[in-house]
Amino acid sequence: MTAGNDAVLELLPMVFAAPGEALARAEALLADDPAPLPASVAHQVIGIWQRDWGDLRLALRHLRRARDLAARADSAEREGDVLGTLGVALVHAGRTRQGLAAFERGVVRTTGHTRARVLYRRAYAWWVLGHHREALEDVRRAIPVLRQENDVIWTARALTLRATVHLAVGAVDRADADFTAAETLWDTTGQEHDKADAVESRGLAAFRSGDVPAALRLLDEAEQRYARLGTPTFMLNIRRCEVLMAAGLAPEALAEADAAIKVLDGIGGQSTRKAELLLTAARAARRAGDPHTAIARAAVAVRLFAAQRRSWWETHAQLVLIEARHAAGRGSGRLVADAAAVAGKLASSGAPVAPEASLLAGRIALSLGWTADAERHLAQAARSRRSGPPLARLTGWAAQALRAQAAGSGRGVLQACRHGLDVLDDHRMTLGASELRARATEQGAELAALAQRASLAHGGPRRLLEWSERWRATALSAPPTRPPDDQRLLGELTAFREIAARAEEARAEGRPVPALEREQRRLEREIRSRTLHLRGEVPGGGDRFDTARLLDRLGTTRLVDLAVVDGRVHVLLCGQGRVRRFTAGSVAEAEAEAEHVQAGLRRLAHPGAEARLPVMEAAGRRLEELLLGGAAAHLGGGPVVVVPPGRLHRVPWALLPSLRERVVSVSPSASSWLRARGTAPPPVGRQVLVRGPGLATGGAEVPELADRYGTPTVLEDDGARVPRVLGELDGAALAHIAAHGTFRNDSPLFSSLRMADGPLIVHDFERLARSPYRLILSCCDTARFASVGADELLGLVTALLPLGTAGVVAASAPVNDAAVVPLMLALHKGLDAGLSLAEALRDARAALPDDAVHRATGWAFTAFGAA
């Protein structure tokens, strides 16, 4: 090789250091009509760029031209090197047989250092094809030669590949060691794309070891690095979708996978990546509860993998296809046999998901009454319960619980469910973000349902209560991890408020807002992303629920815990030292009735709807029948605490006849009520009154309340800005906020209260050292929540309860602004007399005029907690 040719060869490593510059230089070189050897290099560079980030058909055209030019230059080493690159492209195009033949010729045509590089590329192709033993053998042969040649870049690539193969077969420790060694080498190079790939790979390793926040952080960092290089990120999309699914964000994973498929199709990208993205989309659709979409995506993935001769991947796609068909209600002996066959293939290849296939086969067999077959498959799946990452152990304990259920052992079911949910608790508490904690509980929904069913069949009301509490509102069992003093996050929150305020002003003036809305969505993504990176700080799963302690603390209060088992409401009435069970109605019917009531409250918020009042009262009677059943006659004369399932969070409990004139409060769980009851007020009893902009009444109650309390802190006009409001709310004894509320069902933690400088969101409240002991929200929709996970609620009120707030009054529906003012004044009068929030709200309702608008306003407000 001449010095000039050596300079041309430097373009090859540049493809993964500065892809755009390498492409431009290669195209410029070809424009000068070079000799065959440098022309071969230029075509290879363009082929690599197109193969990985562009049109695969163009890639093949350039790589074949590079091969032919190398042969014309009579350079066997150059030809063999190009054949290695061409082999990868052919495999990615689904032409597996041709690709492997190209590798074979490349190995024959090369020696020493060049052969090691060809072997690395073939190892990569073996990994793409799912042939992990062959991949490890080729990389084993390549690494010593690359090291001997002091080829840092290719050695680091080979170590990264070997680590990735180790991860595919579940060898996390070996993968971690290789990733660490590769990263040390990458730090000595300028290979920016390879460095980004190393960060991405570390994210995958973090995920495989069970560290979801670290995985999300590393994958986001890798994405930023790729964005600076201007290269697509299809493998990153696949890996992030995996993490999102594990975090309970399957709908987001489905959207990301489908968007990536669209981009890939648009550039004529790799067929292999399309098949993998289709498989990812199928998994996401199944976990998002959309089996028909899952079937459609998985069926195409199976066909593509089969055509590409990728049997390992095809088997994984078959597993998802069978899962989706079962979820769609199909069950047959053929499906059991298919699931068993898939489980066998996955186990023989060392795939970590093999227990999931065995669990599926066992579950389908159980549904058909094939107990012997079910026991065989479930026993195989149950072996994973003792080791491996948390979600794999959870699969094992689910299988063990189903085995016990089939054997009629209620004790065995409960033991397996307890162990499985303990594993989930440990995993959940590694998550710092309240959203992730809530969504992660979905992974334990089956175990919790099995335990409730076993408790109902084999235990008394106390046991059913304990298991209902075991999985209810667990995200509130400990405060979320407070964000660190992250100046970037604070800057993003400030920018978000400014943009949101500008967008709202533009809408009010009739000006177009698309650009502002795009920027607002971008900032929301950034804020949410940074909060999801937080790791949990609380070890274990929080305090265990103690029925005896609950009964002791209740006194004359009755706690009504509504447990849902197989679609039926069971009322667990706690008080007088015992727990009694009553059977009520269908939860689906109750949920539908609650939605009708919400629509009625919206109409009654406006004058002229008085004729709806009898309809609402009749709906209240139906709700009582469905939700309380016979328990309504045994509530006694004291206060009542209602603990509803997440699906019924919008029930206006004061509308129910037996609760209408009672002291009633609501809590997400009995454990939450106990914590609120035990929360001491702050030593300094500060009152804070906040009045936001744009209220129809101007927050008319605030000046009168200021006179009542003497020297409260009053924040209004320009003084009601988010930083000042948060500073005053922190540690206050009582806070009253009169401001427009907005609930975001699509992103509950961006639900907000409008302040002078923009929205005060849930993420802001989570930065408080201690939220107000008592909080009154006199605006619409502040008691609305999103029901996520197993039985969790995300919203403003549930964000405050773990942060030190013992009691909240808020509305679950739109309310009449004018009617709110007398209700709030009467409520504060009761508080001033020493009443609790629930007592004061009961008396305030009674003090209102007896017309439809005022009565509906009173019903819309609920007291939460125990203060």
TrEMBL record:
**Mind telling me which InterPro entries this protein's record contains?**
CHAT_dom, TPR-like_helical_dom_sf, TPR_rpt
Q: Which Gene3D superfamilies does its entry note?
A: Tetratricopeptide repeat domain
Residue ranges of domain CHAT in the record: 618-865
The domain of life is Bacteria
Provide the protein name.
Answer: CHAT domain-containing protein
